[in-house]
């Protein structure tokens, strides 16, 4: 069973390369306790987000899809002292759990959690004249991915990094006749990326403790 190998290797990577961390473990435990869906990124993926932010030297991050703020905390920890992250969450209960986790991580000053439909929040942020972001993580409802990509471009500057999660969907992404709105959202996301001259992107397939999926990584051109 390849899946059990992926899980074992993910555990091995986590043991070797990801230091034991009481806060992050408490966050995952709190999410489980609250019965949130287990859609958080894996520790290895959380650390990838963290490393990308540090490599880029990003100071302003936007995340679409907070859940319990596990990925948010990985991202926020990569920020310098004057860094800021805005994270958007639709579900008030997820947001409540996220808020408590953010407080537990001592990150209230860095993380701004906005509750409500991301598309409405994004429109409001545009009205408020919110400044562009250096790094944007798209990880909410997949049918809206094409719209999130348009908003990500709105809130970007040359050099902004955009990462979109769950874009392989166990290979279903190549199923042209899929009836799954998430698969179709992701396919339209690729179409938009293909025709959008403002962004240069690739996608990487991944396996691990959360199965077979992958992410899109792109940079906004000058
Ligand atoms: N980024 C999180 C992590 O790795 O820890 C996981 C996010 S989970 C995959 C997706 C989240 O997006 C869920 O908490 C869901 O409630 C939220 N969501 C779904 N539709 C949304 C919408 N229209 N606006 C904002 N958030 C939404």
From TrEMBL:
GO terms for molecular function: O-methyltransferase activity; S-adenosylmethionine-dependent methyltransferase activity. This is Methyltransferase. InterPro entries: Cation-dep_OMT (IPR050362), SAM-dependent_MTases_sf (IPR029063), SAM_O-MeTrfase (IPR002935). The keyword Transferase applies. Keywords: Methyltransferase, S-adenosyl-L-methionine, Transferase. It comes from the Bacteria. The keyword Transferase applies.
């Amino acid at each position: 069973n390849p899946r059990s190998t992926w899980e074992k290797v993910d555990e091995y990577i986590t043991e070797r390369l990801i230091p034991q961390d009481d806060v992050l473990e408490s966050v995952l435990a709190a999410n489980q306790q609250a019965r949130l869906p287990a859609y958080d990124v894996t520790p290895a993926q959380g650390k990838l987000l963290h490393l990308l932010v540090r490599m880029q030297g990003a100071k302003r991050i936007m995340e679409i899809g907070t859940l319990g703020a596990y990925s948010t905390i990985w991202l926020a920890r990569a920020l310098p002292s004057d860094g800021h992250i805005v994270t958007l969450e639709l579900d008030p209960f997820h947001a409540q759990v996220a808020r408590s986790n953010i407080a537990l991580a001592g990150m209230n000053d860095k993380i701004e959690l906005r509750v409500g439909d991301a598309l409405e929040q994004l429109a409001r942020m545009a009205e408020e004249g919110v400044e562009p972001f250096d790094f944007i993580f798209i990880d909410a409802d997949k049918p809206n991915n094409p719209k999130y990509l348009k908003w990500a471009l709105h809130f970007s500057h040359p050099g902004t990094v955009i990462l979109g999660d769950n874009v392989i969907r166990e290979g279903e992404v190549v199923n042209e006749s899929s009836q799954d709105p998430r698969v179709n959202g992701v396919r339209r996301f690729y179409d938009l990326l293909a025709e959008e001259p403002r962004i240069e992107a690739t996608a990487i397939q991944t396996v691990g403790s959360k199965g077979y999926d992958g992410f899109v990584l792109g940079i906004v051109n000058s």
